[in-house]
Write a structure and sequence with these properties.
This protein is of the alpha/beta class. It is built from 19 helices and 8 strands. The protein is globular.
């Protein structure tokens, strides 16, 4: 009997919690998992007494779904998605919808949308952010793909999505093919940046200022009442205060070797592809890579000296400067992320609503913060805003924070504290507002050794020139191009 409003394949943490979320909103959910015992365990366990129907085979799963069928795949990204799509297609009809809700690379979603549409069905790649709790109580949802699918998915997705304080669901249609997964990827890149910035602030407080965990937790609590108010600041406060049953701070027991699942790397690779200077997020990714070299770092500390001096300045002033530096760097992180969104939109012909994207991130997702309201307002004022740093509000915010930002970087460098993301953000800010960079010399070097040509400031853009720097090179030059 076809009475399920939506089906979910994959009963991991996210799949189970999304199923329970849909059921709690009055929808009937069909579920299937490759390991059949997992279906029985879920239906008779967490989902017992709820509108959740288990299926033992894929054909049975498809028969349970109302038309147009809506099958949400919550399985590991990669080849498993392609295999599952091919297994599903013979059991679906024209207009049925396959949804990939995992952390999939946007290029795969572009390819799959085209493939599934050629079979007469619809495909949606949707970013879902909020982790385990978000999936159960309300995540941020960023769908893109076959536009004809959205009217059928909108009521379901917006019903389970997080809502802002004024009741707006954190879910809306992003755009065609891979747009939804691209926006989720950039979200994750910004998440990498935010987390690294907070970790650098923690390291500065702990090692540079000698603060206790209790004192640091109090500082993050105070920051969470001001412009830095956010989910990540909030959980950092809680983590620093947490003790196990024996009274030991758990954070001090955790090995300092960070893991990653790839979305940060994808963001940086996309930035390189589109020629966008995503320097802060790149440093956040590299910081995780460097942290993973734990054994090498331990050995290097013995040889190179790993001690860090205590900051000699007034701790109260240093903390206030650190707060301002963290806020300014956070602005840069979002400015860079939005530049990447603009570049991708131009390359793929996506009509992205940048203010709306900020709204989707205001609740439910990992980077949710009060700060996002300001981004939405910036794009409402200037829909074609080139860079957040050029918005009047953010101009003023960064200018006011700049002296404290510089003092923080100087303090950290002076005592030997690594702050790659905070300092990269400041370097980007200085370079972005620099009217004349030393790239003129770089172009001369390229022309000298490779006849790569250069433009001149006294000639129109687009005209290229070559100099026979040694008198031995001759007039032959390369064709100008930019990767």
């Amino acid at each position: 009997m076809s009475n399920a409003d939506i089906g979910i394949i994959g009963l991991g943490v996210m799949g189970e919690n999304l199923a329970l979320n849909f059921a709690s909103r009055g929808y009937t959910v069909a579920v299937f998992n490759r390991t059949i015992s997992k279906v029985e365990e879920f239906v008779t366990g967490r989902a017992a007494g709820k509108n959740v129907i288990g299926a033992r085979t894929l054909p049975e799963f498809c028969r349970l779904l109302r038309r147009p069928r809506k099958a949400l795949l919550m399985v590991k990204a990669g080849a498993a998605i392609d295999e599952l799509i091919d297994q599903l297609l013979p059991h679906l009809e024209a207009g049925d919808i396959i949804i990939d809700g995992g952390n999939t690379h946007f290029a795969d979603t572009i390819r799959r949308t085209r493939y599934v549409e050629q079979q007469g069905k619809l495909f949606v790649g949707t970013g879902i952010s909020g982790g385990e709790e978000g999936a159960l109580r309300g995540p941020a949802i960023m769908p893109g793909g076959s536009a004809a699918a959205w009217p059928h998915l909108k009521p379901l997705f917006q019903a389970i999505a997080a809502r802002t304080s004024d009741g707006v669901p954190c879910c809306d249609w992003i755009g065609p093919d891979g747009a939804g997964h691209f926006v989720k990827m950039v979200h994750n890149g910004i998440e990498y940046g935010d987390m690294q910035l907070i970790c650098e602030a923690y390291h500065f407080m702990k090692t540079g200022l000698g603060l206790t965990l209790e004192a640091m937790s109090t500082v993050f609590d105070e920051w969470n009442q001001r412009e830095l108010s956010s989910y990540l600041i909030e959980i950092t406060r809680d983590i620093l205060a947490y003790r196990d049953k024996g009274g030991t701070p758990v954070v001090e027991l955790i090995l300092d070797a960070a893991g990653q699942k790839g979305t940060g790397q994808w963001t940086v690779k996309a930035a390189l592809e589109f020629g966008q200077p995503l320097t802060l997020i790149a440093e956040a990714v590299f910081a995780r890579c460097l942290s993973a070299l734990k054994d090498e770092r331990v050995a290097a500390a013995r040889v190179l000296g790993g001690s860090i001096a205590r900051c000699p300045d007034d701790p109260r002033q240093a903390l206030e400067d650190l707060r301002a530096a963290l806020y300014a760097a956070k602005i840069v992180s979002y400015a860079q992320g939005y530049q990447l969104l603009r570049a991708a939109a131009h390359a793929y012909g996506w009509d992205l609503d940048y203010g709306r994207i900020a709204l989707l991130w205001r609740a439910g997702c990992i980077i949710r913060s009060a700060f996002l309201d300001r981004i939405q307002e910036a794009f409402r004022r200037t829909p074609q805003l080139v860079n957040l740093l050029l918005d009047p509000f953010f101009q003023d915010a960064v200018r006011r924070a700049e002296p404290a930002w510089r003092r923080t970087v100087v303090r950290a460098v002076t005592v030997g504290l690594p702050i790659p993301a905070l300092s990269a953000a400041l370097a980007y800010f200085d370079a972005y507002r620099c009217e004349r960079l030393p790239a003129n010399l770089l172009q001369a070097q390229r022309d000298y050794f490779g006849a790569h040509l250069y433009e001149r400031i006294d000639r129109p853009r687009g005209e290229f020139f070559h100099t026979n720097w040694t008198g031995r090179g001759g007039p032959t030059a390369s064709t100008p191009y930019t990767v």
